[in-house]
Specification:
By secondary structure, the protein is α/β, with parallel strands linked by helices. The protein has a single domain (9-185), classed as HUPs (Rossmann fold, 3-Layer(aba) Sandwich), CATH 3.40.50. The chain contains 9 helices and 6 strands. Helix 2 runs antiparallel to helix 9 (205-213). It is globular, with a radius of gyration of 17 Å. The mean pLDDT is 94. The site of adenosine-5'-triphosphate has 18 residues, from helix 1, strand 4, helix 5 and helix 8. GO terms for molecular function: ATP binding; nicotinate-nucleotide adenylyltransferase activity. Residues 11-192 form the Cytidyltransferase-like domain. Its EC number is 2.7.7.18.
Length: 218
């Protein structure tokens, strides 16, 4: 299968500590539902919002590469892990924009839990200047209601669009898409690992092997 290089590019950042089927299914569903030509996975370096990851950046990058290897539409971007300073999504989007030019539609992919936290991100309203946002459902979280900050609700009502419109502009719209709900989290995987429990069927076999070979999360 030859994939076109132009067309909307999915951008999917995360701690990926470790990458699991919740992440991979979100990326694959977005590719299909939103007409993305490729999805770029960007493991975070030292994330500004949260505790130090359980595995070093080099391990999280290696696991993302193993997980992405079997999907020709997925690619892994090492820049945040390799950068000396803290990761900020806005900086990655600025970099991608400079790399890909002003016209290519970029679609930042997020689970709804991450989306609800958006107002705490650096220069968060500027994200829409560089990319569209696409939000996937995740068990245990919902859009709207009391958990939705007012500033975010305002962006949702102003920018809400349908997936078929994403290719018509480089940035600025907001869509939701539905994925098969998967109540998998990296936190749960790390806890299972520490308890000596099986990780099978929660993440790809090469990643399970990598974790055990490098004795991560013990
Ligand atoms: P942790 O448990 O360590 O917080 P996580 O499993 O939530 O990790 P992250 O790397 O923090 O994974 O998440 C990266 C992105 O993937 C976020 O946008 C998050 O919302 C999304 N995501 C992670 N797991 C799922 C899932 N099971 N379903 C839908 N979205 C998910």
């Amino acid at each position: 299968m030859t994939l076109p290089e132009a067309g909307p590019l999915g951008v999917f950042g995360g701690t990926f500590d470790p990458i699991h089927y919740g992440h991979l299914r979100l990326a694959e569903t977005a590719r299909e539902a939103l007409g993305l030509t490729r999805v770029r996975l960007i493991p975070a370096g030292q994330p500004p919002h949260r505790a130090t990851p359980g595995a070093a950046g080099a391990h999280r990058l290696a696991m993302a590469r193993l997980a992405a290897a079997s999907n020709p539409a997925f690619e892994v971007d090492p820049a945040e892990v390799e950068a000396a300073q803290a990761s900020y999504t806005i900086l990655s989007l600025e970099r991608l924009r400079a790399e890909l030019g002003p016209r290519r539609p970029l679609v930042l992919l997020l689970g709804v839990d991450a989306f609800l936290g958006l107002p705490t991100w650096r220069r968060w309203t500027e994200l829409f200047d560089f990319a569209h946002l696409a939000v996937a459902n995740r068990p245990g979280y919902s859009l709207g209601g009391a958990a939705m900050p007012a500033a975010l609700a305002e962006q949702v009502s102003r920018r809400q669009a349908t997936p078929d419109t994403l290719g018509a502009a480089p940035a600025g719209r907001l869509v939701q898409f539905a994925m098969t709900p998967l109540a998998i989290s990296a936190t749960d995987i790390r806890a299972r690992c520490a308890a000596g429990q099986s990780l099978r069927y929660l993440l790809p076999p090469p990643v399970v092997d990598y974790i055990s070979r490098h004795q991560l999360y013990l």
